[in-house]
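Today's session is about reading a structure prediction critically. Students often jump straight to the picture, but the first step is always the sequence itself: look for stretches that repeat, for charged clusters, for runs of hydrophobic residues. Only then move on to the predicted structure, which in these notes is written as discrete structure tokens rather than atom positions. Here is the chain we will use throughout the hour.
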Amino acid sequence: MAEYRSPGPLQPGDRAPNVVLDAITREGKIAIDDFRGRKALLVGLFRGLHCPFCRRHIAAMAQLKGALNEKGVESLTVVNTPIERARLYFRYHPLPNLLAAADPERISHRAFGLPNPEFTEDEDEWPHRLSMRTMMSMRVDLPGELPEPMNPIAASEYLDKTDGYEMTDDDSRMAATGMGQLVGQFLLDRDGVVRWCFTEATPDGSNMFRAPAPEEVMSAASQVTH
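Below is the predicted structure for this chain, in token form.
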């Protein structure tokens, strides 16, 4: 079966493609089509677990699971991490009732149209190319977790140290080809059509390293199930 690639991030009204991935938190496979015709689905597509921002966004998404389920919305977390590494992480950092899948090849990210920017010395063509100068000029502000706004690399190192997260060979392999992978969340209705999304691939890049506010997610869920 040919891999589906969207030329840009899927938008409300687009039909989500079927993607089949290895389940992390249970045996077997998970597919987008498992939910089509049955339940609305919030799909979170993240960088690997090597990304401290994504680890926080995954935990935030998991915290909404109960409230989403009450509205008839299931949630699926997808990480760009090899299956055994992902299973080991969630064994020691369990999130109640988390439904998660491993996508080390980033098939789902391409299918949903999330770019994987190439890092360059001085060329910017957002969201496909990003110069190191531009990246180092960005500031990540996480009050309560970072002592001050920091560039993404310094912020990552600080959070990894805070978390006690030790990179493995699997993590390093994923970071080598997908460190810049953009992430997003897509809310699909029962027919598998996108009704709401939040991605890092905005024209101005203002969503970089951010997660949607819980109120925004729940408001969208209320709309999609009525």
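Discussion point for the tutorial: Residues 20-114+181-224 form a domain with the Glutaredoxin fold (CATH 3.40.30.10).
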